[in-house]
Write a structure and sequence with these properties.
This is DUF1972 domain-containing protein. InterPro entries: DUF1972. The protein is of the alpha/beta class. It has two domains: 167 residues, Rossmann fold, CATH 3.40.50.2000; 166 residues, Glycogen Phosphorylase B (Rossmann fold). Strand 12, helix 9 and strand 13 form a beta-alpha-beta unit. Helix 6 packs across helix 11. The longest helix is centred in the C-terminal third of the chain and has 18 residues. The two termini are 21 Å apart.
């Protein structure tokens, strides 16, 4: 029997694995965990994050760089990763994000590797960046689209943007969320029996996530909300904590990264609030959909596509106050069932991993 040659795939652009940071890291964690036998992964990792430096994880070889994977250093981090790929000579380089894509014209001259780039969530549009950074990220995006062999987008709204802006075919592959369902001592066979009457919010505390809009709505009703976020990371977060932390029905929790602890919090809530207005398909949203919890989402193209137009949507504080007050239990239960059905069909890692691997040939 002839053994087929394995595909050698290098992954550039993340903090690394084991996953301990964000959406791209969870993506790599699960691509390597659910990989086929004929795919060999090489994952670049930031040595600044990992005290214990493993040689392998999920049967993927780990390559460490002594730079930070985020912030300004992310540009050099990604470029250095690509330089090392010239020596490693993978069949495929999977680039996550566009920070280092200014180097792609040179990389393509020096390497025969197939380049697949996930351009992420239109970073240059985010309000948090100053004008110069936005201009650089937009240029990097243009280089990514021009010099990559394949472009991946995680949401149809971003795919439509790439079609319109660059006339470039792209492949829409979202994120899985089934890893959020844990094997812990909470029975979810009848999830309505374990729900408590609290709403849940979970995100980075940034203006584009409409945190203030959500908290303002709950400061005007008596419904309990638990909101998890990095409140102390910015002046914006600190100001929100000072303003809304005094309300007895609003509980502001520090960041929780442990999936088992998050599971207990998620499985017990009666409602999930998703305020993200940018960034494509958001991992925390598709994770939550697997719990069969009703979802109230900010009304934007990204969230409408992710939920197949089946969530309850709000555009401002007044609409959210109205939704919380007027949506009955039957409507909420139906919404939760729709979310879980969609998540099972569209957002599982087995499906996502297979979709990525189909692009490697």
């Amino acid at each position: 029997m002839i053994k087929l040659k394995s595909k050698k795939v290098s992954i550039v652009g993340t903090v690394g694995i084991p996953a301990c940071y964000g959406g791209f890291e969870s993506l790599v964690e699960n691509l390597t965990l659910h990989k086929s036998k004929d795919v060999d992964y090489y994952v670049f990792c930031s040595s600044k994050v990992y005290k214990k430096k493993l040689d392998t994880h999920n049967d993927a070889e780990l390559v460490y760089l002594s730079l930070k994977a985020n912030g300004v250093q992310s540009i050099l981090y990604d470029i250095l990763s690509l330089v090392k790929c010239i020596k490693i000579k993978p069949d495929v380089v999977l680039i996550l994000g566009v920070s280092g894509c200014v180097f792609l014209p040179f990389f393509k001259l020096l390497s025969n590797s197939k380049v697949i780039t996930n351009i992420d969530g239109l970073e240059w549009k985010r309000e948090k960046w100053p004008t110069a950074v936005k201009a650089f990220l937009k240029f990097s995006e243009r280089m990514a689209v021009k010099y990559s062999d394949i472009i991946v987008t995680d949401n149809k709204a971003i795919g439509d943007y790439v079609d319109t802006e660059y006339r470039k075919k792209n492949h829409i592959i979202a994120y899985g969320g089934d890893h959020a369902i844990r094997d812990v001592d909470v029975d979810i066979s009848d999830i309505t029996n374990v729900r408590s009457e609290y709403a849940l919010g979970l995100c980075r505390i940034e203006p584009e996530n409409n945190v203030e809009m959500i908290l303002e709505a709950f400061s005007n009703n008596h419904h309990l909300i638990k909101f998890v976020g990095n409140w102390e990371a910015s002046a914006y977060g600190i100001s929100l904590k000072e303003k809304f932390g005094k309300f007895p029905n609003i509980e502001l929790l520090d960041p929780i990264y442990d999936l088992d602890s998050l599971y207990s919090l998620r499985v017990g809530c009666s409602l999930y609030l998703h305020g993200h207005s940018a960034g494509g398909t958001n991992p925390s949203l598709v994770e939550m959909m697997h719990f069969g919890i009703p979802i109230f989402a900010f009304d934007c193209d990204f969230n409408r596509f992710s939920t197949n137009n089946s969530a309850h949507f709000f555009k401002d504080t007044e609409q959210l106050i109205d939704l919380v007050a007027s949506t009955n239990r039957s409507e909420l239960d139906q919404n939760g069932k729709k979310m879980k059905k969609l998540a099972t069909e569209r957002y599982t890692w087995k499906v996502i991993s297979s979709d990525y691997e189909s692009l490697y040939s």
